[in-house]
Amino acid sequence: MKNLIEWNDELSVGIQEIDEQHKILVGLVNRLYKAIIQQNDTTVINDIFQELIQYTLIHFSVEESLMRIFNYPEYPEHKARHEELTKQVIELHNKLKKEQIPISMELLSFLRKWLTNHIQMEDKRYKAHFLEKGVKTTWSERGWVGRIWNFVHHH
Q1: How confident is the model at residue 145 (pLDDT cuts 50, 70, 90)?
Q2: N- or C-end of the chain: fewer Cβ atoms within 10 A?
Q3: Which DSSP state fits 29?
Q4: Which residues fall within 8 angstroms of residue 139, CB to CB, at 6 or more apart?
Q5: Distance (Å, whole) CA 10 – CA 137
Q6: Is 145 part of a structural domain of the chain?
Q7: Which domain holds residue 70?
Q8: What is the dihedral of CA 68, 73, 74, 80, to 10 degrees?
């Protein structure tokens, strides 16, 4: 089965730690897509959605911490955008839980745009600033957020 979002260079911000986190988000949206296509029961779908929200909050916190540490000039706007995106996805999940909206391609299309547009339009803007401040583009070992996430979900 095809994925809803295929990872490609256009989604890369060129900083491995961030890219790895974005790949986890892409993976969660794809898992949600597959669960919906395979018509899994709503409990499974809700669990994946909940995981997507939790990881989104972690990821946004990491990005915002980096922005504060490196004095990113567009931090307030980016943080406001994160808050708006978080609110949208939580509202969507709540409507889904209350069965006010059907589990549909429309919902998935929203999630795909929500993620890919944010990466391509907003996240890519901080790359030059972070690199100028000495942020490493790659790391020698697996990023700590990925390790924590795997630990939490496998224990």
Answers
A1: low
A2: C
A3: H
A4: 16, 17
A5: 16
A6: no
A7: 14-136
A8: 40
Residue-by-residue DSSP string for 69-112: HTT-TTHHHHHHHHHHHHHHHHHHHHHHHTTSS---HHHHHHHH
DSSP letter at 136 equals -
CATH number, domain of 22, equals: 1.20.120.50
65: Cα separation from own chain's centroid? 16
* Any domain includes 122: yes
Those residues with Cβ within 8 angstroms of residue 154's Cβ, 6 or more apart along the chain or in another chain: none
Task: Measure the CA angle with vertex 146, ends 73 and 50; round to 5°.
Answer: 90
The structure tokens listed for 139 are: 């790391």
5 vs 16: CA distance, rounded Å: 19
Average pLDDT over residues 139-154: 58
Determine which helix (DSSP H) or strand (DSSP E) holds 124, and give its type and residue range: none
Q: What's the chain's length in residues?
A: 155
